[in-house]
Amino acid sequence: MRMAEAREEPVGKAATILHAARQAFLASGFGAVSMDAIAREAAVSKATVYAHFNSKEALFGAVVADVAEQHFAGFTALELDPHDIEASLTTIARRFLDLVLSPEAIAVNRIIIGEVTRFPALSEVFWQAGPERNRIQIEGFLRRAAAAGSLAIDDVRLAGEQFRSLLRGEIYLRRLFGLEGRDDPAALAGAAARAVHTFLRAFGPTSS
Amino acid sequence: MRMAEAREEPVGKAATILHAARQAFLASGFGAVSMDAIAREAAVSKATVYAHFNSKEALFGAVVADVAEQHFAGFTALELDPHDIEASLTTIARRFLDLVLSPEAIAVNRIIIGEVTRFPALSEVFWQAGPERNRIQIEGFLRRAAAAGSLAIDDVRLAGEQFRSLLRGEIYLRRLFGLEGRDDPAALAGAAARAVHTFLRAFGPTSS
DNA sequence: GTCTATAATTGGATAGAC
DNA sequence: GTCTATCCAATTATAGAC
Fold first, then answer.
1. Over the stretch B103-126, which tens digit does the pLDDT of each residue have?
2. From the alpha carbon of A57, which nucleotide's C1' atom is closest?
3. pLDDT at res. A155
4. Please, which pLDDT band fits residue A4 given cuts at 50, 70 and 90?
5. A194–B126 C-beta distance less than 8 A
6. A41 Cβ nearer than 7 Å to chain C strand
7. A113 close contact with B: CB closer than 8 A
C-alpha cells in the first residue's frame, strides 16, 4: 500500500510532465503551448514526454481529466440544515462561487470552451465531473428544503438552475472574458448574499 | 453618396477577405485556421491578404470588431410599454435569448474566451459592443417600469444583472460547451417564460 | 494591388543509442 | 525509460515580377 502522491511536488516523470503541462495549458490554452515548452518546463526531453503521452491531444485530455476530477470533487451540501434556509443557502452560495470563480476553474473553462470544436469529447467529460455534480448537490438540498416547508418550489430542477444562474451572475462571465481579476472574499460574499436574497424573494416560504 | 455594402456578397477584395476570415475563425477558432485557408476561401493569394491586413492577429481583430459591431447593434427595448410588464419582459427576454444564443454569438464568445490570454484587448472591445449595450437597454426599461409601479426594484443595476443571469441560465453555458445544438423556437420561448416568471416572483409589484 | 514562388521558422513526432 | 539529434509537415510572412 502506497501513500497518495503529493500534490505540490509530483513524483515520477509522468506526474512531473502532467504537472508542467497543466501549468502551461491553464495559463495559455492549447494552441499557444508547444510540446517543447512543456518538456523544457518539466526538465525532460521531448522524447520522454512522448513516451508517456502519445500526442499533444492526449496530454491535453489527461490534463483536463485531472483538473476536473480533482477540482470539483469536494463540493457538497449534504450536512446543511434545511430549516435554517438563509444560512444554508448562503453557505452553498459561497462554496459554489469559491469553486466556479477560482482562477483554476476559470482557466479550465476557458480552454475547454475555446477548443470545443477541436475536442468535443472533453466538454462532456468536464461537464459530468463539474457542473453536474454541483447541480445534483444543490438540487438535493433544495428538495429537502422544499419538503421541510422552507421553500416554495414546484420544479426543483428549474429552481436549482435559476439559483446557480443568479450566483454566476455577471461576474462569472467577466472573469471568463478576463475583464477582472481575483475578487476579494468580501466581494464574493456580497455576490452570494445578493443572489440568495433574490432567490428567497422568489422561492421563500412567504412569497407564494 | 454610395449605397451601403451588401452583407451577403462582399464587394472588393478587402471585404471578401474579411468575410472569408470571419467564416473560418467563427467555425474553428484562431489557432486552427491558417492564412492559407483564408486566402483559398477568399479566392485570393496569401500576399493579397497580407496587403490588406498586416498579420493574422490584425485580421482576427478586424473580424471580432466587425462581428461585435454588426451583431449587437439592433438590440433595443425602447418602445416597450412599462405598464404591460409581463408582455414587455417577455419580449425583451426573447430578443435577448435570440441574440446571445444565436450560433454566431456563441461562436464569437468561444473564440474570444479561448484567446483571452493572447488577445486581452479584444475582450474589452467585444464587451462594450455587446453585453454593455444589452445591459443599458434592459436597465432603461426596468427603470421606467419601476417608476411606473410595475416592478418593486431597489437596485436597478442589480435587478438587470439578475434578469440577464436568469435568462442565460444553463442553456447558454451548455451552448458554449457545445453540449447542445440549436434550440427550436418553442424551447427558447419556454426558457424566456420561465425566467420572466421567476423574475416577477422576485420583483413583481405584489411581491414586496 | 495582385500574383507565383519561396524564405524562415516553428512545432509535432520519431530514430537510435544507452 | 530517457536522452540527443533530426525529420517532416505546416505555417507565417515576404520578395519580386506584372
1. 999 999 999 999 999 999 999 999
2. C12
3. 98
4. very low
5. no
6. no
7. yes
What is the pLDDT at residue B8? 60
Which residue in chain B is spatially nearest to A153 when comparing CA positions?
A: B198
Grid coordinates representing B195? 425566467
**Stretches in chain B below the pLDDT threshold 70:** 1-9, 207-208
- pTM check: above 0.85: yes
Positions of chain D reached by protein Cβ under 7 A:
1-6, 10-16
CA of A4 to nearest chain B CA: how many angstroms apart?
A: 32
DSSP A84: S
